[in-house]
Amino acid sequence: MIFKQLFEPVSSTYTYLLGCEETGAALLIDPVLPTWERDLAEVNKLGLRLAYTLETHIHADHITSAQKLKTEAGSKIAGPALDALPCTEVGIVDGVPFTMGSVELAPIHTPGHTDNHFAYFHDGRLYTGDALLIEACGRTDFQSGDPAALYHSVRGKLFAYDDDTLVYPAHDYEQRRISTVGQEKARNPRLGGERTLEDFVALMNALDLPYPKFIDHALPGNRACGVCPPDVPEHLQAYCVQIADSRQG
């Protein structure tokens, strides 16, 4: 398998490129709209063709480039079937393998950050989305978030993998790129060690985090698989495709 980790700095998002050497097909997990040209160039540079974009969930902090990549490269849009988005062509179902040539991902329903969140396992790697971050986890205070559900998703499902399983999150804000299940079980301050369900729920409910600054634009944009709403204010334009026209770009 061909593998590459890509980073988008405005939303601190990791996009993952997976390629099948046998068929020449590639997929991108959680691609971000401002970097669609870079991502497609990486696919082409490797001599691959983009077959799919694959989402872990409906994002609140950036807009996916799925629709743009479909227009430019003919790729199909895949995402959780539970979201029932009309623009999604392949619905991901818990436990039903997602196959692209020799690449077969195991979808894992991991609710808690959002109710329909998915992680993916393949070849010793867990792509954990926002459910499990490096020494952290995603928020549970919007989009049907549920701290008890997240606790069971991480400790009951993701922590069930071998300690040497590599953890590739959707974000990191400290320039870290990779962890392992064993490291997160031992060192994650929110979900590791002997943390009880009751303690975790109390911790998450007491965080009192600020309202996500891009959520009101990201959610409608991502429900359309990557449409930048026309009312995005100038100071947030860097999260959209108009990055080149923004003073932030």
Supply the key terms.
249 residues, globular, Metallo-beta-lactamase, Chain A, six-stranded mixed sheet, alpha/beta, 6 helices, 2 domains, disordered C terminus, 14 strands
Describe this structure in words.
The chain has 249 residues and is α/β, with parallel strands linked by helices. The protein folds into two domains: 1-93 and 212-249, Ribonuclease Z/Hydroxyacylglutathione hydrolase-like (Metallo-beta-lactamase, Chain A); 110-209, Ribonuclease Z/Hydroxyacylglutathione hydrolase-like (Metallo-beta-lactamase, Chain A, 4-Layer Sandwich). It has helices spanning 36-45, 66-73, 147-157, 181-187, 197-205, 215-223; strands spanning 2-8, 13-19, 25-29, 49-54, 76-80, 90-92, 98-100, 103-109, 118-122, 125-129, 132-133, 136-137, 166-169, 179-180. The strands form three sheets. The chain has a six-stranded mixed sheet, with helices on one face. Strands 7-8-9-10-13-14 form a six-stranded mixed sheet. The protein has a two-stranded antiparallel sheet with strand order 11-12. The longest helix is centred in the middle third of the chain and has 11 residues, at 147-157. Mean pLDDT is 94; it is low at 242-249.
